[in-house]
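hiii so my PI (J.) wants the whole complex modelled not just the main chain, which honestly fair. so below is everything: two entries, each one labled with what it is. i double checked the lines twice but i was tired so who knows lol
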Amino acid sequence: MGGCPFSSRRGFLGAAGSVLAASAFAERAVADGAGTAAPSAGNSAPRTVGGTSGNGAPIPFHGRHQAGIDTPQQTHVLFASFDLVAKRAEDVVRVLRDWTLAARRLAAGGALGNAGGDPTVPPPDSGDALGLGPRRLTLTFGFGPGLFEKDGKDRYGLKAKRPAALVDLPRFNGDQLDPAHTGGDLCIQACADDGAVAFHAIRELARMAAPNDAANGYGGKQAGVAAPYDAHQGAAVLRWIQAGFLPGGPSGETPRNLLGFKDGTENPGRPHPAARAGGKLAGNGTFEDVVWVGEEGPEWMQGGSYLVVRRIRIALQHWDNVALDFQEQVIGRRKLGGGPLTGGGEFAPLDLDATDKDGNLVIGDNAHVRLGAASSNGGARILRRSYSYNDGLAMIAERWPPWRQGLEYEAGLLFIAFQRDPRTGFIRIFENMAKLDLLNQFTTHVGSGIFACPRGIAKGEFVGKELFAA
Amino acid sequence: MGGCPFSSRRGFLGAAGSVLAASAFAERAVADGAGTAAPSAGNSAPRTVGGTSGNGAPIPFHGRHQAGIDTPQQTHVLFASFDLVAKRAEDVVRVLRDWTLAARRLAAGGALGNAGGDPTVPPPDSGDALGLGPRRLTLTFGFGPGLFEKDGKDRYGLKAKRPAALVDLPRFNGDQLDPAHTGGDLCIQACADDGAVAFHAIRELARMAAPNDAANGYGGKQAGVAAPYDAHQGAAVLRWIQAGFLPGGPSGETPRNLLGFKDGTENPGRPHPAARAGGKLAGNGTFEDVVWVGEEGPEWMQGGSYLVVRRIRIALQHWDNVALDFQEQVIGRRKLGGGPLTGGGEFAPLDLDATDKDGNLVIGDNAHVRLGAASSNGGARILRRSYSYNDGLAMIAERWPPWRQGLEYEAGLLFIAFQRDPRTGFIRIFENMAKLDLLNQFTTHVGSGIFACPRGIAKGEFVGKELFAA
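here's the output for the full assembly
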């Protein structure tokens, strides 16, 4: 370790921030040997959802799409939202360049430097994920409305380039949004099969963009970073982060959320088309139809997607106290197998017209799956890629009967959805649900964000490149 | 599913709460087939620490010791602390009986009932961990001071039976304990290789002891529970919970904490004695010496242990900004390899007398490992079984230079230690450390608890049985 001279490791991002010096990164002691090979550029092979996840092999960082969208869902997420504090567009560019290079390295299972290197500067890597390997880490970058305009100011000259689809989310019925979990100018969705790997990645990326500490002088002194961003200004600071998890069930099975129901059955590409032969529905759509921005978007978004995140608290104690048949009526599906109340297995089509012997709809008017179904929303579909979260207990006053008040779980769903256009995706679907969904008596939306996730990149590019071109 | 008649599943714990009806538990759809076999009674084979962890096989629930202490550390914890609200000792007994039976079932990978069963009552199992199998789940029960005496009241006639070793922890220098993460009359440490499994177990056990919901009537109506505890009173309510994680590195390796340093190198039984041949230290002690209560304790504690939990926030942004050599001087070990500053690999003995060419101690007076070493504390040793935690961001004012204030990580270490006697264990060791440890400028103790974890049990017994005998 420490084989490269300290001097050569300084400034590894180069003065212009664009040159990756191979010697800049000391190798992580990767147990599975996956640490050194950089992924090949321009990988555009489609990733599959719901297939086997592989066993820890790195997820390619380069490609037509950013990883972490059509990647088979990992078991952990750390979602991070940032406020931009940079004064100049060039500092935003610089942080995006640095993040791109670092993310590629992290996704390959590498550390950002040698935890045992130059003793006179802060370690370039915090060391808490040493030896873990890539663990299928993906880092997905998104641009919030504040990059383009904030408080009426066009801070970076990008206002005219704001995509029409990157709307401000409307206020939905029942919203109780906490600013401490809402908004942000940039986001990074870090997903991995180990929560420690996801947290490490965010910690390192946040550190690269953070303001200098007056007493300790991070920027100028840290091995590997050429100079502080704009002196003590920094470029971006964390606004909120949220960890989430999924039960690590058999690969390819639909994971269950904290309601105990399967979540994501109707995602694009699920199940494999062959499994749906003879089904009444035309299918759950393709990623091209539902997820990826096409020629209707600006160049930097073509192959990208829009991310909507909602922190949804679930009144678990209340939910656990209601009868199974009521739970199933609320959702419109069976709890155990996941099939619709109208019969069949998990992937059987919903029969929204079926009635019982008394003429009542089997899947009720206000059932969650009816209100969320594409056929109830003019064909609108989204990709759900949500995680459960558990932040302990909090004093909570529920907003529905029996109006429980007290120390309850601060837990629920970190809902994450990707779509080609939020106006015809999440917003279209959720407007009705926010008013009518039976599930609302158990759920409260307490955090929110919307981000434009640019197309994937080839080697040598950085995330959002064309957006910043003159 | 649902093969047993609903009527036979009601009252599975029996009127006296002590009879396990085999038909009471519907089987979880366990993917790995481990769901049905109950572990054999009276297993007293020693478990090893730091060895291979097995691959998801159930950890035996019965034995001389409770599981979750000398069990090789799982990757996730959910630590739960409860306040007793039961008015009568018999209600405490009943919850301990019910918890014991349920815990055995959960540890074997079973669900607490059929998520697809009787539709007219709340599902006996919340269903969020269906199909996951045991994932090495352990449930370790502990009794806090409040079981014996609370606010000067001897609520359950147990005051005279309080063990001398179950002291109230003193106030330590620097403590900033938040009541929302401190204390408790009972605790359950749920550890598993999947955080969803640990959370599910706590959720189910908490539900069994919770007060009735006036509107939904959990107790009397839920399949499998005979009658509510003392009408609407309940027996125990959650006071605080804390999730934690470890990086899932290769089995047997010492995991790293969020400081990026290995944590637990000097635990009893580590490394295997053969690896220490020729070492200067006599060894790290045995579980018999360090962890298990012997004949000095009451019968119900013989083979048990005392648990001390501390929620320790770490100023990660501050730590990440200091030079590597300072980090290593603070700890007294190398960051990368974990060896002492006085040389050698991770398991090399500390040389606390070694000086450099200028005559200064190599491992400084106030280094973390010196202050924590057995030889600095009259031979005191503890078993560290800690986890990292990450609860997002919070507004924090640090208590050391440079007195950073702002939005920082609400993250750190959920320190969990087991010992034969806290007076000669954690308290002995930490009193000096709280005053002198260089690490204190990066850490703040913000939560705390002490619990007596009774001996393990044989089949048919319940946790703490002799304590409640007349």
